[in-house]
Design a protein that fits this description.
Elements lengths: L4 E2 L11 E3 L5 E3 L15 H13 L3 H6 L14 E3 L5 E5 L6 E3 L13 E3 L4 E6 L19 E3 L6 E2 L13 E3 L4 E4 L13 E3 L4 E2 L15 E3 L6 E2 L13 E3 L4 E5 L2 H4 L6 E3 L4 E5 H4 L8 E3 L4 E5 L12 E3 L4 E5 L12 E3 L4 E3 L14 E3 L6 E3 L12 E3 L4 E3 L14 E3 L6 E2 L13 E3 L4 E5 L12 E3 L4 E5 L12 E3 L4 E5 L4 H4 L11 E3 L11 H5 L6 H29 L18 E5 L3 H11 L8 E5 L2 E7 L5 E7 L10 H12 L9 E7 L3 E6 L6 H5 L2 H6 L2 H21 L14 E3 L5 E3 L4 H5 L28 H17 L4 H8 L11 H4 L11 H17 L10 H7 L15 H7 L11
Parallel strand pairs: 1-3, 5-7, 6-8, 9-11, 10-12, 11-13, 12-14, 13-15, 15-17, 16-18, 17-19, 18-20, 19-21, 20-22, 21-23, 22-24, 23-25, 24-26, 25-27, 27-29, 28-30, 29-31, 31-33, 32-34, 33-35, 34-36, 35-37, 36-38, 38-39
Antiparallel strand pairs: 2-8, 3-7, 4-5, 40-44, 41-42, 42-43, 43-45, 44-45, 46-47
Helix pairs in contact: 12-14, 12-17, 12-18, 14-17
Length: 911
């Protein structure tokens, strides 16, 4: 967890020690007053000796990273800055990957140290007592302090009453700690305060009324505490408040009148409280407002026409309240709106056709209301729409074919309505659709075969309708499909031979007419021969001898092949007779006793019971297993026995040994491989937090995945790929890099997995089209070349880098970058496409520099011509360099980032 602390050095000697539990720490002098100048008589030799002594306490790898630390002049050491007198003033060792503690560093020699940055390393233990500790009452001595940042640490206890003596304070940020107790009334003395952030703590109290005395506030954030009582009455009396956030507390009562008249608002988050009152009267006109979230409260009344005055509004969420009435047609005038969520209320009437004017709308969420009428055809005009949820309403009529115009649609949920007619075949042209739910309607007719073109569809539910006929054969091409429900229809015929149907529970296919297939409780499908019967004029009788002869030839061929195979030499393969396990053949390439370990895995997973399921990767399902030693491992059960496809066991063993010998902090460790004719599996290191995709798809987890963690994760992926491409022998190409196989450990450190799996299990298949789950990450040149290269991995890295920054797959940007177009539609600013769950406007300067750097490099990696892409070594090296921004972060545009790629790496093919 990144830790940041910014405080004046004037109180340095009055602060006690505090334990650091995370991976990074920042200390800096941001005081507005001139910092104290310590005497220049520091012993330079002692400084050098102290640094070299500390270096020697680190592990060998860390010492190699500090190879410039030698000699008698510490001012020449990497990461060291000195003043004119040769005394160390700044120590910056961020992002080096150092491991160890600060126990061996004598800070008493560094008397003129102004800033210390060891962020994004593996430093653990205690912070020396001469630097920082728990928030002490002696902090009152910093009377000239203008800025106090101690966010993202492990501070505990209450805020001291003496905080009120910091009368010059303009910014106070104590967020993301474990502070508790009450907020002192003395905070009202901080009348110069413009920014107050106390979010992500354990405060459980009501706010002191003295908070109303802080009239210069522009940002007020108390989110994610246990605060109760009413919101401050006069918190906006200074008319300067722009950002007001109290997410997930226990506030009750009415919305204060001062908030209704606070025309300076830009972002307001009141969601997750117990606020009451009439929404029609509680809010005013906010010409600068960009985001308003009132969800999960007890507000009632009707939606006001005043919202049309919020012409800058991009996100309006009022879900899970008791709002009634109709959706005002004037909502169509909020032309910058990107998200409209009015779900789980009591809204009635129809969807106003004026909403078709919202050309930048991405999310339209109206489920769980009482809205009636037809679904307007005009929804098809919302060309940027990604998520449409109209479930659990009273819509009638047919499904509009105009949905085909929503080419960016990712999820479409029309379930639990009264829709009639057939499923429009045009939906098959919405090529990015991932979720389709049309269940619990009154749909009839056949399932259109055009739906088989939805190659990235993951979930489809058409249950509880009156659909008939067979399931189209084109569904056999839907390789991304994982969840299917066609129950309670009149379907018949064979199930498609894809994983979603083959592994579907009976509940997902029950109550149909005559479905057949290889699913338990379904009858087997009749063979084509038996369906023909004897109505062929006796030709079936003639065919029997022919088939018998062909069968004999096939059997003879198999016997000959088996004899040849058995006589082949198989050197260096550990094969074991495992006795009573049906005397089946057994292969194990593993750093354990194969026979015993195989049994342990079966016992630990209860023969791969679904309760141990943790995810799914290429070629198999992943289970969590705790073996007898107490070690937890990840076990990937291979979908089909690799022995069916692996003919050269000696080569296979060498590949496994090569993979298991790879040791890099950003690559998941492979322990080995076990194969039995009953089960085959690969055994990996277990990574706690799961995949990047799972984290980004979970709002709560994504909100905790802060910018510094995301930056560090991208660096880790780059380091791993650089190692694979340039430092391994033989070199490795991942071939299937996606957000699903980038895993994160407890410290949000990136670990890439699944590399080499395709090469191991399908050595003759070099085509990416044979690799599951890579749609959306495939380099464009693989459309005409079936051989992936290092530059294919570079392209996939560019997609993942942008996905990490945006919080979702960057489809539009990837399409734009790979096209010949030089323009992209609004919004064209970087801040507008970043993950809004992290409030991009609040990104720290150092994080902003890193985010811009990653985005710039991502565009380089996404160039259509692979020769113009950098190598991963170049990317990894570039990510170590922090380039100061030449403009404000909010002004950086995507066009500028695209132009910045320059073609600096043109023709880079080597190291």
């Amino acid at each position: 967890m990144d830790q940041a602390l910014s405080i004046s050095t004037s109180g340095l000697n009055n602060i006690n020690h505090n334990q650091i539990m995370g991976s990074s720490f920042i200390f800096d002098n941001f005081a507005s007053s001139t910092p104290s100048t310590f005497p220049a008589a520091a012993n330079n030799e002692k400084q050098t000796e102290a640094l070299l002594t500390w270096k020697s306490s680190l592990d060998n790898y860390s010492q190699s990273l500090l190879s410039s630390w030698h000699g008698n002049n510490s001012c020449n050491f990497v990461g060291i800055t000195c003043n004119d007198y040769g005394s160390i003033t700044h120590l910056n060792l961020s992002c080096l990957g150092l491991r160890g503690t600060f126990d061996g560093l004598d800070f008493s020699c560094l008397i003129n140290l102004l800033s210390l940055d060891i962020s994004n390393n593996w430093i653990y233990g205690f912070i020396p007592s001469s630097i920082v500790g728990p928030l002490p009452s002696s902090i009152q001595n910093l009377s000239n302090l203008n800025l106090l940042h101690i966010y993202s640490n492990h501070l505990s206890g209450p805020i001291p009453e003496e905080i009120g003596k910091l009368v010059s304070l303009g910014t106070l940020d104590l967020s993301n700690n474990s502070l508790c107790g009450s907020i002192p009334s003395s905070i009202g003395s901080l009348t110069n305060l413009s920014i107050l952030r106390l979010s992500y703590n354990d405060f459980a109290c009501s706010l002191p009324p003295e908070v109303n005395q802080i009239t210069r506030l522009s940002a007020f954030d108390l989110s994610y505490n246990k605060l109760e009582g009413q919101l401050p009455d006069e918190i906006c009396q200074g008319k300067l408040l722009q950002n007001f956030s109290v997410i997930n507390n226990h506030f009750t009562g009415l919305i204060p009148k001062s908030l209704r008249n606070c025309s300076s608002f830009i972002r307001v988050r009141l969601d997750g409280n117990q606020l009451t009152g009439n929404i029609t009267e509680a809010f005013g006109i906010y010409p600068q407002l960009e985001l308003m979230d009132l969800s999960h409260n007890y507000l009632y009344g009707e939606l006001s026409w005043k919202w049309e005055s919020c012409r800058n509004l991009t996100s309006l969420t009022i879900s899970n309240n008791n709002i009634s009435g109709e959706i005002p047609a004037v909502f169509g005038k909020m032309t910058r709106l990107q998200k409209l969520d009015l779900s789980s209320n009591n809204l009635s009437g129809v969807i106003p056709r004026e909403l078709a004017s919202l050309q930048f709308l991405l999310d339209l969420i109206l489920n769980s209301n009482r809205i009636t009428g037809d679904i307007p055809n005009e929804i098809g005009f919302l060309s940027k729409l990604e998520h449409l949820n109209l479930a659990s309403n009273n819509f009638r009529g047919s499904i509009p074919a105009q949905f085909v115009q929503c080419t960016n649609l990712l999820s479409l949920n029309l379930s639990k309505n009264k829709l009639e007619g057939t499923i429009p075949s045009e939906i098959g042209n919405v090529r990015f659709l991932e979720v389709l739910d049309l269940s619990q309607n009154q749909l009839t007719g056949r399932i259109p075969q055009e739906l088989g073109k939805l190659r990235v569809l993951e979930t489809m539910n058409v249950s509880h309708n009156s659909l008939l006929g067979s399931i189209p054969e084109t569904f056999g091409d839907m390789l991304a499909l994982t969840i299917i429900d066609v129950s309670y229809n009149n379907l018949e015929g064979p199930l498609p031979n894809v994983k979603a149907f083959n592994e579907a529970p009976f509940e997902a296919i029950q109550h149909n007419k005559r479905l057949c297939g290889n699913v338990e409780a379904l009858q087997k499908c009749d063979s084509p021969m038996s369906k023909k019967g004897n109505g062929d004029g006796g030709r079936g009788t003639t065919a029997i001898p022919v088939l018998t002869f062909l069968g004999f030839l096939l059997l003879a061929s198999i016997v000959i092949l088996l004899l040849i195979f058995v006589r082949r030499p198989r050197k260096n393969i550990k094969r074991e007779d495992i006795g009573r396990l049906n005397d089946l053949d057994f292969l194990c390439i593993l750093n354990f006793d194969g026979k015993a370990f195989y049994k342990q895995i079966l016992e630990a997973t209860e023969e791969f019971d679904s309760k141990f399921y943790v995810g799914e990767g290429a070629y198999g399902i992943v289970y969590k297993a705790e073996i007898s030693t107490g070690q937890i491992v990840a076990v990937k059960k291979i979908s089909s026995s690799p022995e069916e496809e692996i003919l050269d066991f000696v080569s296979f063993e060498r590949e496994i040994q090569a993979l298991s010998n790879i040791c890099h902090r950003n690559i998941v460790k492979l322990y080995g491989f076990c194969s039995h004719l009953q089960h085959s599996f690969m055994v990996y290191e277990y990574i706690e937090r799961g995949s990047l995709r799972a984290i980004l798809n979970d709002d709560e987890k994504a909100s905790e995945f802060a910018w510094d963690k995301r930056v560090n994760m991208v660096r880790g992926v780059a380091n791993a790929l650089s190692y694979m491409h340039h430092d391994c022998f033989p070199r490795w190409i991942h071939r299937d890099l996606t957000s699903n196989n980038v895993l994160l450990d407890a410290d949000y450190e990136a670990r890439i997995s699944d590399f080499g799996t395709a090469r191991l299990l399908r050595p003759d298949s070099l085509s990416w089209t044979a690799v599951a789950g890579s749609i959306g990450y495939i380099a464009p040149e693989l459309a005409y070349s079936t051989i992936p290269t290092e530059k294919s991995d570079v392209y996939s890295f560019g997609v993942i880098a942008l996905e990490t920054l945006m919080g979702k797959h960057p489809r539009d940007i990837v399409s734009w970058e790979c096209s010949s177009s030089t323009e992209i539609g609004s919004p064209a600013l970087l801040k507008d496409v970043l993950d809004q769950r992290l409030s991009p406007s609040r990104v720290r300067i150092r994080d902003a520099e890193d985010v811009v750097s990653i985005a710039r490099l991502a565009f380089m990696c996404l160039q259509a011509d692979p020769r113009l892409r950098p190598t991963m070594r170049q990317v990894s090296q570039e990510l170590r360099i922090r380039v100061p921004l030449e403009m404000t972060f909010s002004a950086v545009s995507l066009e500028q980032l695209r132009d910045l790629n320059g073609r600096k790496f043109q023709g880079s093919q080597g190291d």
